[in-house]
Inverse folding.
């Protein structure tokens, strides 16, 4: 008996479009994001989803509303994006200019570097993976959806695929659908993963 978990990244926001770091700031999806999410419906229409779990940020909850009707929803802070602290709202170039040393260290090894005012990677990892395991146990034998953020999905895949470096796992696009499964021993496998349009697993 296994749990089928459909991981859905929220639709595009204006900050995503502008390539700004976005975590705790509660920004909703834009018109493009709404179109993306509506297009994602075709990828889940045949899935028998019994429950939806979602980050409590507007961009995730609006995405849920466009995707699902009359399904039990649990909103949780545990599925929020990692808190980027002083990087929040800034573009890559602005971060390099203002916080070059800490940014270089974080890119080199995010597990060992804490962004000032942000969340330690280990704390982020623990809250997300503990929630994922709880969902697996609570919904054993069912199909559930998790509507969340790109970094959360990347983290989950990094753990399942045992990536040597966090950045070895490519980011998924807004409104993308990633599918994993887990058995009662909490052994996870990846069934569908499309990093920036690149299909995985490959035949």
């Amino acid at each position: 008996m296994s749990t089928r978990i459909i991981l859905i990244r929220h639709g595009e926001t204006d900050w995503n479009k502008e390539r700004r770091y976005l975590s705790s700031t509660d920004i909703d999806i834009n018109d493009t994001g709404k179109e993306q999410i509506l297009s994602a419906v075709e990828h889940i229409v045949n899935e028998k989803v019994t429950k939806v779990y979602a980050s409590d940020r507007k961009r995730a909850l609006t995405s849920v509303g466009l995707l699902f009707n009359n399904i039990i929803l649990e909103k949780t802070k545990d599925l929020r994006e990692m808190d980027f602290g002083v990087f929040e709202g800034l573009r890559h170039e602005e971060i390099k200019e203002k916080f070059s040393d800490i940014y270089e260290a974080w890119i080199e090894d995010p597990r060992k570097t804490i962004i000032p005012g942000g969340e330690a990677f280990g704390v982020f990892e623990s809250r997300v993976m503990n929630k994922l395991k709880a969902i697996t146990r609570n919904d054993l034998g069912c199909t559930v959806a998790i509507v969340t953020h790109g970094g959360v999905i990347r983290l989950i895949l990094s753990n399942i695929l045992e990536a040597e470096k966090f950045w070895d796992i490519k980011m998924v696009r807004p409104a993308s659908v990633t599918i994993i499964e887990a058995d009662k021993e909490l052994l996870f496998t990846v069934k569908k993963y499309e990093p920036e349009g690149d299909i995985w697993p490959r035949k």
